[in-house]
Write a structure and sequence with these properties.
It contains 11 helices and 8 strands. It has 248 residues and is of the alpha/beta class.
Length: 248
């Protein structure tokens, strides 16, 4: 069965449109966990457009005592300290998530929109991965379904890859879908053969998830934007249940 990790960035985005702490990200994390979510994901960026460092700390305090729920913190490993943002790796070292997903997103990106090019960044990432391993956490790399790149991910020490599923989601209902699905399937199969786990995320939703989740040995999907939109009509509890049902 594929685990469901709920990304709470958009809850924080709504909160940040007003003063105060409403909606409270931690309270919504509790709803997700109570309804069977297997994990909580956050992506704290230096501009703090949604998740803030204090959110990461509070969520870590909530999730870490739970043996059946994982905490995943994702972000740009090269993001430096700015103001009260301590730097991505420093925040991860402080909060000690179960999994750290490294993502090549810059401050000027609206959202994560591509995987790592490890021919240019692999040697910079290697000591970061080693440091995170020394702290006892799993490391996943956000990757396109490029077989050569996935082999490099193994070489520099990644435990898992997270396949970037944006193009797959964008192709839903088009004649490009099957070719893109086969690319992701081949990437997942290679990762498994190399001994790395396979996660996936970006624009997966109640329409396109079931097909993608048919990929063998898919360990985890991270869903945030579509989950939040679905919660507006279904309610958050029902939305968690609906995604869980699709994952088996």
């Amino acid at each position: 069965m594929t685990d469901l990790s709920i990304n709470l960035n958009k809850i924080a985005l709504i909160r940040n449109s007003r003063e105060g702490n409403y909606p409270d990200v931690v309270e919504f994390a509790k709803v997700c966990i109570d309804q069977g979510a297997d994990g909580i994901t956050v992506h704290p960026r230096p501009d703090q457009r949604h998740i803030r460092p204090e959110d990461v700390r509070r969520l870590a305090a909530l999730v870490q005592p739970l043996t059946d729920v994982e905490f995943n913190v994702e972000g740009n490993p090269f993001a430096p300290a700015i103001g009260d943002y301590p730097g991505f790796i420093e925040l991860v070292a402080e909060t000690m998530p179960d999994q750290c997903t490294l993502v090549p997103d810059g401050d000027d990106q609206l959202t994560s929109d591509h995987g790592f090019d490890l021919t240019s960044s692999g040697e910079q990432l290697r000591p970061i991965i080693e440091r995170l391993h020394s702290l006892g956490m799993r490391v996943s790399l956000f990757m396109d379904p490029d077989l050569a790149q996935i082999e490099l991910a193994k070489e520099i020490g990644a435990d898992r890859i997270e396949l970037y599923t944006g193009p797959y989601a964008a192709a839903w209902g088009s004649d490009q879908l099957e070719a893109l699905f086969q690319e992701h399937l081949a990437a997942a199969e290679l990762s498994t053969r190399l001994g790395m786990g396979v996660n996936a995320g970006h624009d997966l939703n109640l329409h396109n998830l079931a097909k993608f989740a048919s990929i063998p040995n898919l360990l985890e999907v991270s869903i945030g934007h579509a989950f939040t939109v679905d919660s507006l009509t279904l309610g958050m509890a029902k939305t968690v249940q609906s995604y869980k049902a699709l994952l088996g």
